[in-house]
Amino acid sequence: MKLLHKSLKSALMASTVILPGLAFAQETQGQETPTINTQIPDEIVVTGRYIPDEKRSTSEISSVVLESDITAAGDSDVAVSLTRLPGISTDSSGKYVVVRGLNERYTSTLLNGTQLPSPDPLKTAVPLDIFPTSMIKSVLVQKTYSAQYPGAFGGSVIDIRTKVTPDERFFEIGLDVGYNTESTGKDGLGYFGSDTDWLGFDDGKRDLPAILQTNPTMSGFTDAEIEAAGESFPNVWSIDTDTNPVDIDFKVSLGDSFEVGDGSLGVILALDYGSSFRNRFGEQYVYSGSETTDSGLDFERRFGPAPCEEAGQPVEDCGYRTTTWDIDLNAFGSLGWQINGDNAITFTTLLLRSSQQQVEIKQGSTNSRDLANFTRLDWKERQVWSNSLFGEHAVDLLGEEPTQIDWFASFIEAKRDVPLRRTYEYFFDDVDQLFRMSARTDGNQTAFGAMKDKSKDFGVNIVQPTYLGDMSVDFKFGGSYNKKDRESDFKRYSYDLSAVRNRELREYVPEIIFGPVNVDPAGIVLREFIDASDRFDASFKNKQAYVQADAQVTDQLRLSTGMRYEDSVQVVTSVDRTTDEGIRIQQNLKKWLPSATATWEFVENMQVRLAFSETLNRPDSRELSPARFVREDGRTEEGNPNLKPATIRNFDARFEYYFGENESITIGAFYKEISNPIEYTIKPIGDGELDSIANAETAKLKGIEAEIQKSLWSLDEREFFLKANGSYIDSEVTRTAENFDQITNLVGQMQGQSKWLANVQFGFENMEVGERFNIVFNYIGERIYRLGSIGRPDLIEKPPVTLNLIYGREIEIGGSIIALSFKAKNLLGESAERTQGGLIAESYDVGRSFSLGLKYKF
Length: 858
Fold this sequence. Notes:
By secondary structure, the protein is mainly beta. It has a domain at 172-530. Helix content is 6%, strand content 57%. It contains nine helices and 43 strands. The strands form six sheets. The chain has a 30-stranded antiparallel sheet that branches. A five-stranded mixed sheet has the order 1-6-7-4-5. A two-stranded antiparallel ribbon has the order 2-3. A hairpin with a 2-residue loop joins strand 41 and strand 42. The model is unreliable at 1-48 (pLDDT under 50).
C-alpha cells in the first residue's frame, strides 16, 4: 500500500531522457512519453522514451524478483527463486543463499523492511526455504549497501515483501501433487513419533519426561527415582520401512477490499501446507591423512558396499541411507487501512513453520571395527512468528513537496525444538557373526534441544523531497531500536550398559534392550551427560540512526550518499567447559558506516553505477558461546568466545543498458576486503573431531557478473523471451595458525564459494489466456564444503547441474479461472557429490521430480 506522493524515485521512474537543449518531464510512470509537438511551424519535434525497470529506478545496484517471475520459474520457495539472479546460489542444504561467494552469514534478511531473527541456532541467517512463494509479492536483493539498511551486510540485503491488500475480492484454492523418481513409491525409513506429525507438531510424546523437567541432572535422585526416570522415556528406537507417499502442496487464500470513508480497508488471509519425502541413499567415506597411499589419504570410515562384502554380509545393507520427511505449515494475515490518499496503516501477521522427521542409517567399517551400524532418529520444528504494524503518512511540512513519514513496530519470535533425538550403534562380532549393541557410554544417546529468540523492533523513516536550486534531492533520516533475547538449552542422556553381564541381551532390538524390565539399578541405568556450557542466555541491543541524500545532481548524474551509526551491545552468559566457571562475554560495538553510489546516464537508457561502502559482520550469540550443537548431518559444532566482528569494505561497478520493456543488459564487477572474516574449521578432540569457528586474518573477494533479458519474437499471441546470467568469482583468505590449529591451507579460497555460476531461462508467455512455458537451466560450480585439517585436503562439494521445465495454462469456466500447471525438475538426473583429494566422500542420487497442479480462482 503506497501513498500518493512525489519523491525522487517516482520522478525518475516517470522522467524521460534529457536531450541537449530540451527537458521534458512525464507524469505517468511506466508508460512511453508521447511525441512532443510544439504546434509552432518550423519547430523540431523531439521524442523521448523512458524504459521502466525497478532495478533501474533504485539508487543502488539491485535485482528484483516479482511474483510473476516466481510463477514463471515454478519455484516453491524464496531460496530457490533467488538462484535465478546473477551471483546467487544456495548452500548444500538448499535453505540459505550464497551471494557473490559469501556464505549465508553475510546476508541480511528483512521482512517488509524489518530484520528477522533466525529459527536455527546454528546459523546467523534466516533460512529462506520457509518462505512459501504463494505469500510473496516481490523480493528485493540489493547488492550495494545504503545507509537506511542495517549495517550487518556483506553479500546483500534481501527484503521479502509480502502481499498487503487486494485491489478486489478474490478467492484461490490450489493443490499440487508431486513425484520423485528416487523417493516416491520407494521404500523409505521412518518411525512413529506422534499422531500429529503430519501437521508438523509433536503432540507431546517426545517431550522431556515430567520427572526430569524440574531436575534434568537428576541431582539427589534415589535409585528408585533414577529407575523411574529411565523408564519414563518413550521406548521408541527402531526404524520402520514404509512406502513414501506422493508430495502434496495445498494452498488457499482469500481477500477483499471495502470502502471506508475517504479510503478503503483491505484484508488478506492465506494458508499453505506441504508434505514431501526424500530418500538420500548412497555412499559416504571419511578419510585421514596417510603417507602409505598414492592419494595421501586412507579410510577412517567406510559407509559403502565393500565392508559388507568383506564381512560376508548382504552388500545392500552397507552404505548411507537417509529419509527426510518435510512438513511445512504457513499462515498469513494482513489488514490494511488506506485512511485517505496521504495516510495508511497496515498490520501483518505471518506464521512460518517447517518441521522435519529424519531417519538415518549408516553401515560400514570404522577404525575400531570392521563392521558397524549407526542409527539416528530426529525430529525438528522451526518456527517464525512475525507481527508488525506499519504506518505511512504524507504531511505538508515545507510547502514544496510532502514529507513522507514511515514508522514500524514489530514483535518477532523464532524458535527451534529438537525433542527426543536418538542415536545408537551396533557392532558386528566376527566370531559370533552377529550385531551387538555397543556397551560404550556414547553407544546410545537421547537428546533434547530448544532455542527461542524474541525480537522487538521500533523505527521511523522520514523522506523529504526538495530542491536545492535546480537539483532535486530526497533527504532521508531515520532511527530504530532493536532488542533480541535468546535462550538456548541442550540436554543429553545415555543408558549405561556396563553392568549388563548378559551379552545376548545386546543382540536384540533397542525396544527389548531398554524395556522397563531391564532398566534397573542393578542393570541398565540412565545417566545424564549434560555439559554446563550446553545452556546459555544471550541478549543483543542495537541503537541505530542514519542520514542519507539521494540527489539528481545533473540531468545525467544521480548521487546517493549516506552515513549510518550503530551502537550495539551483545552479551552471552554461559559456563566455561574446562573450568566449570560462569563466563560472560560482552561485545560493545560503535560504528560509523558510510555509503555512496553514483549513477551516470551517459547515453539514452544506458547508465553506469559506482559504489563504495563500509559494513560489518557480527558473531552470533551461539557462536560466542562455548556450547556444542549437533547439526543435521550429525557433526558437532562448538562456539568460540574469542570471536571478533568482521569489517568489510565494498567496491562495486555496473553498466546497465535498457533497450525495451523487460529488456536489459547488465555487466558488473565487485571487490571486497574483509578484516577478521569468520570461518569454520575442524578441531581435533580426543580420538575424534568437531567443527569450531575462528577469525581468519583477511579475505579478498572479486568477481564479474553479467545478465541479459530479451524478448525474442511473437508467435500466435505468445511472447518468447530469454533470460541468462553468469558470474565469475575469485577469493583469497589468509588464516593464522594461532586461530586455525592444524588446518591444511593457511591461504586458500573462501569456504562455500563457487568460481562459476550460470542461469538460463527460455520460454514464452501468453497473457491473453494465462499461458506460461519456461525451461530453466542452473549451474553452480564446485566449492569448499569444509576446510581440511590434519593433513587432509579440503572437502569439495559439486552441486548437480539442473534442468527444469514448467508449463501453466489458465482456463475460464463460468466466470471462474482454473489454472493448470506441470513442473519437471532435474531432468538431467545428476547426482549430488562431495570429494576429498579426488576421492568420493559422499554421493547419492537426487532423482527427477514431476508435479501436477490445479488452482481454482474466483
